[in-house]
Task: inverse folding
């Protein structure tokens, strides 16, 4: 970097550049914006970053992001226990919640099976998903429907296939969806 | 925002969304990335933000960003005092420095004249630019060339025209450039 760039500025450009989808030009633009923005704006961003790391945990039941041991959806007594929607990432929960078409529970895998990246089923929250299904069955209220909403990628499809096989016999039905309008049975 | 979004996450999405060129989708993506990124990455970004605000000031001579009363370029005894390049923003200094074609000094206006936005000459660092020219002349070493490198926008052109008139007689020559390859006299 040119000698014209002073150290704290270079560090912020560098930190922004590490974010996904932020190239060096955007990182520069954001940095210079924050240099001139109202002090409250820059500090609010810094505080929000720290509190996201300090206050956010993963739900111990569904592994969605949470501010407590159980997330707001797992805590909500109004949701249907018999339906379980399986997604790759917390962002997927958000997208589905926004449609307002699903009133069941979630399970967040935190990724998809990808042998080429060394990600096997044991690296995802699959064991915990199977345990949830077993537990519900043992308590005499087996899961009615598991909805597999993994991404329409090779990895997402492979994960759905794998889960379909492992869940067979543990739950009443397994459905693969691309959108909440067009579900199809596996 | 959906009840599925917990408070610290919503705050970070909101803070990212305020940045220029960052839409709500990108803000969400960045937030979820930082939730799962190594702790050091998120904290480095937060620290860099705070130190940019705490440690960065504007150079009292050229108004470029600086970590001291005078910026590294104004402090550099190897630069040509007789050439002064006028730019709108600190980022422009960076871009010109990267070409390696200019070895003079800078003056950062911090914007361009834009009557529609209520930005008159008095809102920019124009008074200080004229004072620099006067001072150099009074000291018997008048500025040889002022290079106007404002942006090729209506506002940038209007600012260059205004500066050309105001600098006339105070400096030896005023040049308007679009790039350091193609300067033309005003």
Result:
């Amino acid at each position: 970097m040119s000698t014209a760039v002073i150290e704290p500025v270079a560090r912020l450009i560098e930190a922004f550049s590490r974010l996904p989808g932020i190239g060096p030009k955007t990182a520069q633009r954001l940095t210079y914006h924050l240099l001139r923005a109202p002090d409250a704006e820059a500090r609010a961003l810094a505080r929000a970053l720290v509190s996201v790391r300090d206050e956010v945990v993963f739900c111990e039941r569904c592994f969605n992001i949470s501010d407590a041991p159980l997330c707001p959806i797992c805590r909500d007594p109004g949701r249907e226990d018999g339906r379980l929607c399986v997604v790759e990432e917390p962002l997927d929960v958000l997208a589905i919640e926004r449609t307002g078409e699903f009133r069941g529970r979630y399970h967040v895998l935190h990724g998809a099976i990808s042998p080429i990246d060394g990600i096997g089923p044991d690296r995802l929250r699959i064991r915990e998903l199977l345990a949830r299904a077993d537990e519900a069955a043992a308590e005499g209220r087996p899961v009615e429907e598991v909805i597999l909403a993994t991404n329409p990628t090779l990895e997402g499809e492979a994960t759905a296939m794998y889960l379909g096989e492992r869940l067979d016999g543990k739950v009443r039905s397994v459905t693969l969806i691309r959108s909440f309008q067009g579900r199809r049975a596996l």
Remarks:
- Residues 84 and 146 of chain A are 5 Å apart (CA to CA).
